[in-house]
Design brief:
The complex is a heterodimer of chains A (384) and B (424).
Chain A (H helix, E strand, L loop, with lengths): L14 H15 L3 E5 L6 H6 L2 E5 L8 H4 L9 H11 L4 H5 L2 E5 L3 H10 L5 E4 L10 H20 L5 H23 L10 H11 L5 H23 L7 E6 L6 H10 L3 E6 L17 H10 L10 H13 L4 E7 L3 H17 L4 E6 L6 H15 L1
Parallel strand pairs in A: 1-2, 1-3, 3-4, 5-6, 5-7, 7-8
Chain B lengths: L4 H6 L4 H20 L9 H8 L4 H11 L4 E4 L6 H6 L3 E4 L8 H5 L8 H11 L4 H5 L2 E5 L3 H10 L5 E4 L7 H22 L5 H25 L8 H11 L4 H21 L9 E7 L8 H7 L3 E7 L4 H4 L10 H12 L11 H13 L4 E7 L3 H16 L4 E6 L6 H16 L1
Parallel strand pairs in B: 1-2, 1-3, 3-4, 5-6, 5-7, 7-8
Classes of the chains: A alpha/beta (384), B alpha/beta (424).
C-alpha cells in the first residue's frame, strides 16, 4: 500500500482539523475504504457493503466560501460553496481522504457543483428522479442504485453480494432506530436537553466510524436523558417549544439554533436533514435488498421532489408529537426548492396547525446576526 | 390594442392593470425597433404581430377553441410540439419576459427566484396576459428547481401536466424520455379527444421540421460578413415563433430569408463594416425582453447569433422523418430533443461544443454569456464556458441581469468597454 500523505500546509491547520485529519489517516492506514457523500438520498448500505466508510462532505465554515467563489457563482447556497471550498483547498479531511465521491442530482446547485468536483476526484452521480410519484420513477431509481453497485464494484475491484447488502440494511436500520429514539427525547415536555446538544451529538456521530459503538452510545445517552427527565423535569413548566424545518442547519447552528435557546425557547426537534427526516422510515428487510433500498430512499421528503406532500405530513405529525408551540423554518440563501415551498408550509403551519411560523433566510456569514436575533426575539415573545 | 377589450373582458382579465401594460409596450417597441435604420421590409409581419401582441394571435386561438381545438401552453424547448400538433392541438409559448408581471409572481414565490419564472406565474395570477388565460392546459417540465417548484403553485390555479425531463443524457435517459413522450401523447389524446396516428404524427414532425429549417435559413443569413438583419429583429422573429402557427411561421421566416439572401447578394448590411459581431449565450430572452440586444446594438456591436432557447437551441437538429411506427417516431423525437444542450443537464459539455462551433460559423468577435438572476445552473456553467472560450482565444464577458431597467447603464458601461476591448 502506498504511503498516506497529509496536505502540504497541514502544520498551519487548527487543532480540531488536525485531529480530524489524523483520525481519518489512521482509518485509511487500517486499510479501510472511504467514500465521501453529500445527501440523505445516498444509499449508505451499499457503501457499507463495499467495506467502505461513508463520510459526509457537506461542509460548514465561512472560510471555505471565498476559495469556492473563484469557480462557483457567489449567488449559490453556502452549503454547496463551503463543501466545494473545503474540497479544493485540502482543508476538508473527509474529502481529502475519500477514495471517491458519491453524489446525486438533487438540487440544481449541487448538480452543477459536482461537475467541477468530478475534475478533482472520481465522482459517481446518481440521477435522482424529480418526483416520487411519476410513472417509472421507482424503476428508474432502482436502476440507478444498481448502477452505483456496479461502479463501486468496478472502482474497488470487488464483488458486492446481496447478503452483504442485507447485512448492512439490518445494521443501518438498527442505527436509524437508535437515532430516532434519541431524537424523541426532544418530544418530552419540558425537554431535558438543548436542541444544540441534540443536533451536535448527531452531527458529530456522523463521523463516528464504528456503527455498533455509535448505536451503543446513543442508546446509553437516550436512557440517561429519559431518566433525567423523570427525575428533574417531569411536571415542571416548559419554555416555548420550537420545531425547526427547512434546509440543513449544521452550518448555522451557532447563529440560529443556539440563539433561539439563548433567547428563551427550547428547540425540540428538526424537520430537516439534520433531524429524523429519513430515520423514521426503515429499509424493508424482507424484500430483495436493491428494491428495498430504492423504495426507501425515494420516499425521503426533500423539497427537491415535486410535488412534496410528504413534508407537510411529517411536519404535521412532528408538531403534534413534539408538542411544538411554533415552527422556525431556516432557508439557506439561494436554495430555490425550500424557498419556493415556504408559502405552502407557512399556510399549513399557521392555518391548519394554528401555531406561529417564522421563516429565516440566511447564510454562513455573521453579518446578519443582529437582524436574526431581533426576529427570533420577537417570535419567541409571540409564543410566550 | 383597443379593439380587443371585449375579448379580454370575456377572458376574465384585469383590464385596468392590463391597460398599463398596453400603454408602455408601444413605447418600448418604438424605442428598440422603430429607431433602427434600413430594416428588412419582411419585418412588417413581426412589427404587426408585436404591435397587437395581445390581440391578433389570442383572437385566432379563441376562434380555434370555438371549433373544438385545444390550446396547450408550454414553457420549455424540451416539450415536443409535434405530439400536440399531431392531435390537432395548438401550442403557445407562455414564458413571461417583462418586469410588469414580476410583482404578481412575488406574491407567492420567493423574491430570489429567476424573473422568468416569477413573471410567468405573475402573468397567470395577475390575469394580465391573454395567452395565460386562453391555454386550456399548461405543460410544465422538471428542468430547473425554480420552474419545478413554481409549477406546483401554478397547478393550483390551472390544469397542469408535468413532463419528467432527465438530468443526464445516457442511453437509458434517452429511452426514459421516449417513454415520457409516449405518456404525454396519451394525455394529449385524452385531452383533445383526437387519436395520434403514425400519419398525423409524421405530418406534425414534417411541419415542425419545416419551421425549424425556415428559422435556420434566417440564422444562416446572419453568418454573412455582410449582415443583412439586426440581432434585435432576428430575436423578435424567434420570440414570436413560439406563439405563432407553425405553418405561417415557416412561410414568414422563408419570406424574410428570401429578402435577406437578396440583401447579401446586393451587399446591403444593417451595420457599418467593422462592427463587432457578438454571440449571445445563456438563459432565454422571452418576449418582450430586448434589453441586452438593445444595449449591445447601441454600443457598437451587432448580435449575430443567440445560443439560447430563444435562439439556436429552439431549431437546430431535425427530427428523423423516416420512421413508420409510433414507437420509432417517439424515439426519433426523444433523440432530437435530447440533442438540445441546456445547463439543467449534467454534464453539459455539449453546450460548450455548440458555442465554439457557432463562434466559427457566425464569425464571432466576442461572446456575451448572460444569465438571469438566480439561475444557478447557467451561472455555475459560466466558469467552464469562459475558460473554454479563453482557451479558444475568443473574448468573453459574463453578465447577470433581470427584467428591471435599473442596471441598464451599468450593463451599457460594461458592454461598451468589452466591445472597445475587442476593437483594441
Amino acid at each position: 500500500m502506498s504511503e498516506i500523505k497529509l496536505p502540504q500546509d497541514f502544520v498551519s491547520y487548527p487543532e480540531a482539523r488536525k485531529q480530524a485529519f489524523m483520525k481519518l489517516k489512521a482509518l485509511k492506514e487500517s486499510g479501510r475504504r472511504v467514500v465521501g457523500t453529500f445527501c440523505t438520498y445516498t444509499p449508505q448500505e451499499l457503501v457499507d457493503a463495499a467495506d467502505a466508510t461513508p463520510v459526509s462532505l457537506c461542509a460548514i465554515g465561512e472560510d471555505n466560501i471565498p476559495p469556492a467563489e473563484k469557480v462557483l457563482p457567489k449567488n449559490l447556497c453556502p452549503l454547496i460553496k463551503a463543501s466545494f471550498g473545503g474540497a479544493v483547498t485540502d482543508r476538508c479531511p473527509f474529502f481529502y481522504f475519500s477514495d471517491m465521491v458519491l453524489a446525486e442530482t438533487t438540487c440544481d446547485g449541487k448538480k452543477k457543483m459536482y461537475e467541477y468536483l468530478g475534475k478533482i476526484k472520481h465522482t459517481h452521480v446518481m440521477q435522482l428522479p424529480p418526483g416520487q410519484f411519476g410513472e417509472g420513477a421507482l424503476a428508474f431509481w432502482k436502476s440507478e442504485v444498481e448502477a452505483l453497485r456496479k461502479d463501486l464494484e468496478q472502482f474497488y475491484g470487488i464483488t458486492i453480494s446481496d447478503e452483504k447488502i442485507a447485512e448492512a440494511i439490518k445494521l443501518r436500520n438498527r442505527e436509524r432506530k437508535a437515532i430516532l429514539n434519541y431524537y424523541k427525547v426532544g418530544a418530552l415536555k419540558p425537554s431535558p436537553l438543548s436542541g444544540y446538544e441534540l443536533n451536535t451529538i448527531i452531527t458529530s456521530n456522523e463521523y463516528a466510524f464504528d456503527i455498533e459503538k455509535k448505536i451503543e452510545f446513543l442508546e446509553k445517552r437516550t436512557a440517561e436523558l429519559t431518566e433525567k427527565y423523570h427525575k428533574e423535569y417531569e411536571g415542571k413548566p416548559s419554555r416555548p417549544r420550537v420545531l425547526i424545518s427547512g434546509c440543513p442547519t449544521h452550518g448555522v447552528i451557532d447563529k440560529v439554533i443556539k440563539r433561539i435557546e439563548e433567547l428563551g425557547a427550547d428547540v425540540v426537534g428538526f424537520e430537516n436533514c439534520c433531524g429524523p427526516r429519513e430515520k423514521a422510515d426503515l429499509v424493508d428487510e424482507t424484500k430483495d435488498p436493491i428494491t428495498a433500498i430504492a423504495e426507501k430512499y425515494l420516499r425521503i421528503n426533500c423539497s427537491v421532489m415535486s410535488p412534496n406532500p410528504g413534508r407537510l405530513e411529517t411536519l404535521g405529525n412532528m408538531i403534534d408529537e413534539y408538542k411544538a408551540d411554533g415552527v422556525i423554518e431556516v432557508v439557506l440563501m439561494a436554495c430555490h426548492t425550500f424557498a419556493a415551498e415556504t408559502s405552502t408550509v407557512k399556510d399549513f403551519v399557521t392555518k391548519e396547525k394554528g401555531i406561529p411560523f417564522l421563516s429565516i433566510t440566511t447564510d454562513y456569514s455573521t453579518t446578519d446576526q443582529g437582524q436574526i436575533d431581533t426576529r427570533l426575539g420577537a417570535f419567541i415573545e409571540l409564543m410566550s | 390594442m383597443s379593439d380587443y377589450v371585449q375579448m379580454w373582458k370575456d377572458l376574465g382579465m384585469d383590464l385596468e392593470t392590463h391597460d398599463l401594460l398596453c400603454q408602455v409596450l408601444p413605447t418600448a417597441v418604438g424605442d428598440v425597433y422603430l429607431t433602427q435604420e434600413n430594416r428588412p421590409t419582411a419585418m412588417d409581419f413581426w412589427d404587426l404581430v408585436i404591435s397587437e401582441v395581445h390581440g391578433i394571435r389570442p383572437a385566432e386561438l379563441i376562434a380555434a377553441q370555438k371549433e373544438g381545438r385545444k390550446v396547450f401552453g408550454t414553457f420549455c424547448v424540451y416539450v415536443p410540439d409535434e405530439v400536440i400538433v399531431a392531435a390537432n392541438g395548438i401550442v403557445t409559448g407562455l414564458c413571461g419576459g417583462s418586469q410588469f408581471w414580476v410583482p404578481d409572481g412575488e406574491t407567492v414565490l420567493p423574491k430570489s427566484t429567476c424573473p422568468l419564472v416569477k413573471a410567468s406565474v405573475g402573468a397567470r395570477l395577475g390575469r394580465t396576459c391573454p395567452f395565460f388565460r386562453i391555454a386550456d392546459m399548461y405543460v410544465g417540465e422538471t428542468t430547473c428547481d425554480g420552474k419545478k417548484k413554481a409549477y406546483e403553485i401554478l397547478g393550483e390555479d390551472v390544469p397542469m401536466y408535468i413532463m419528467d425531463v432527465p438530468q443526464m443524457k445516457r442511453e437509458k435517459d434517452i429511452l426514459k424520455w421516449k417513454d415520457e413522450i409516449a405518456e404525454f401523447a396519451k394525455k394529449v389524446e385524452e385531452f383533445t379527444g383526437n387519436k395520434i396516428t403514425v400519419e398525423n404524427l409524421a405530418e406534425a414532425i414534417r411541419v415542425i421540421n419545416e419551421k425549424r429549417k425556415a428559422l435556420q435559413r434566417v440564422y444562416d443569413c446572419r453568418k454573412s460578413e455582410c449582415l443583412p438583419i439586426s440581432g434585435r429583429d432576428a430575436l423578435l422573429m424567434t420570440q414570436i415563433s413560439f406563439f405563432d402557427d407553425p405553418v405561417r411561421c415557416a412561410q414568414m421566416c422563408n419570406r424574410l430569408a428570401d429578402e435577406l439572401e437578396q440583401r447579401i447578394k446586393d451587399g446591403v448590411s444593417v451595420v457599418p463594416a467593422g462592427t463587432k459581431r457578438i454571440l449571445v449565450t445563456g438563459t432565454p430572452l422571452a418576449v418582450p425582453n430586448w434589453k441586452l440586444h438593445n444595449i449591445i446594438e447601441t454600443s457598437g456591436g451587432a448580435v449575430v447569433c443567440e445560443e439560447m432557447c430563444t435562439g439556436t437551441r429552439y431549431f437546430e437538429n431535425l427530427v428523423d422523418e423516416s420512421k413508420t411506427t409510433l414507437d420509432e417516431q417517439f424515439m426519433a423525437l426523444s433523440e432530437r430533443y435530447m440533442k438540445t444542450n441546456c445547463a439543467c443537464f449534467t454534464p453539459n459539455t455539449g453546450r460548450i461544443d455548440d458555442i465554439l462551433r457557432l463562434c466559427n460559423e457566425y464569425k464571432v468577435d466576442g461572446v456575451i454569456d448572460c444569465s438571469l438572476k438566480f439561475c444557478c445552473l447557467y451561472d455555475t456553467e459560466k466558469y467552464s464556458v469562459s475558460r473554454a472560450l479563453k482557451d479558444a482565444g475568443v473574448p468573453v464577458l459574463s453578465l447577470e441581469t433581470d427584467y428591471t431597467d435599473t442596471d441598464a447603464e451599468q450593463l451599457r458601461t460594461r458592454i461598451g468597454a468589452f466591445i472597445e476591448m475587442i476593437n483594441g
